[in-house]
């Protein structure tokens, strides 16, 4: 059996770890012990060749798809997020994305106010929606559907790669930003049994959704509480924000919805304006968050994890 260059590098690395004998490596790779010995004698050469091959591979991956087609990737991802909100049951297969990407590429090129660099225009004009581009897009932006892939393994790999890529991009986008200007929020539910007096009118359990916002510097913002009662009697005449630093919101289900998210983001924006700062608010990809971002800035970048 003839080992590939990659397998030879693996042999060299394992031998260098001192955890395996040549006999054990021979059994592992199903070759003779002499073959393993000869490979180890060529350790420096094998390391040089594999390092050179890796460098060439990385250079080859730094193609127009990575940089010149960035605007296309962003537009396609935004369209995906819109579909996630408006048609959550629609299955976006690789073929669907390839066709949509080609359609978007044509539209971007024809946009008179796009002011694109020449190399970006050329990349868009030559774009064919190849499988190579599709693989790269999937690595950068994650899987195409929330449905589990057969076996579950591939989905985990894609998600792992996607999360690491997005974290690096997130760290890069926040480099140089003051900690006091970086905010994030989280939510949890408070489920309760209706009181006896309300039991006749209530169906099942009641619910409040509580949202907390904090900056990377440790500063806390107002708490948000979302209930099912538009004007609770117990809060009548009370300015909850002034008294308790609580902003009360309403939805029919007591869940976070787009409008309640918009309300909190506007409050944060008001604080930023007051301080003459620009806040970066990082939220997860829950539909109300994505929809709120679209409401506030339909032309913006609603990228999600």
From TrEMBL:
Coiled coil location: none
InterPro entries per the UniProt record, alphabetical: CenT-Element_Derived (IPR050863)
Domain of life per record: Eukaryota
Gene Ontology MF: a single term: DNA binding
GO CC field: nucleus
Protein name: Tigger transposable element-derived protein 6-like
Organism, as annotated: Phytophthora palmivora
């Amino acid at each position: 059996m003839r080992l590939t260059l990659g397998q030879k590098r693996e042999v060299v690395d394992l031998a260098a770890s001192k955890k395996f004998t040549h006999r054990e490596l021979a059994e592992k790779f199903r070759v003779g012990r002499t073959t393993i010995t000869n490979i180890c004698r060529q350790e420096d050469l094998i390391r040089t060749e594999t390092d050179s091959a890796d460098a060439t591979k990385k250079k080859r991956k730094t193609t127009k798809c990575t940089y010149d087609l960035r605007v296309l990737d962003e537009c396609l991802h935004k369209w995906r997020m819109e579909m996630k909100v408006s048609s959550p049951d629609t299955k976006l297969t690789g073929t669907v994305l390839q066709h949509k990407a080609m359609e978007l590429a044509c539209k971007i090129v024809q946009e008179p106010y796009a002011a694109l660099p020449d190399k970006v225009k050329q990349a868009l004009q030559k774009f064919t929606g190849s499988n190579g581009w599709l693989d790269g897009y999937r690595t950068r932006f994650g899987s195409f559907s929330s449905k589990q892939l057969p076996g579950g393994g591939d989905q985990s790999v894609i998600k792992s790669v996607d999360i690491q890529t997005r974290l690096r991009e997130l760290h890069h986008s926040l480099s140089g930003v003051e900690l006091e200007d970086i905010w994030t929020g989280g939510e949890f539910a408070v489920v309760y049994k209706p009181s006896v007096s309300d039991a006749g009118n209530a169906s099942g359990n009641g619910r409040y959704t509580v949202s907390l916002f904090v900056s990377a510097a440790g500063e806390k913002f107002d708490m948000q509480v979302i209930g099912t009662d538009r004007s609770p009697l117990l809060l009548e005449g009370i300015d909850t924000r002034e008294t308790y630093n609580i902003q009360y919101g309403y939805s029919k289900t007591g869940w976070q919805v787009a409008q309640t998210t918009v309300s909190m983001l506007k409050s944060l924006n008001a604080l930023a304006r007051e301080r003459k700062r620009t806040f970066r608010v990082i939220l997860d990809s829950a539909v109300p968050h994505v929809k709120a971002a679209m409401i506030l800035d339909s032309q913006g970048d609603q990228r999600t994890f």
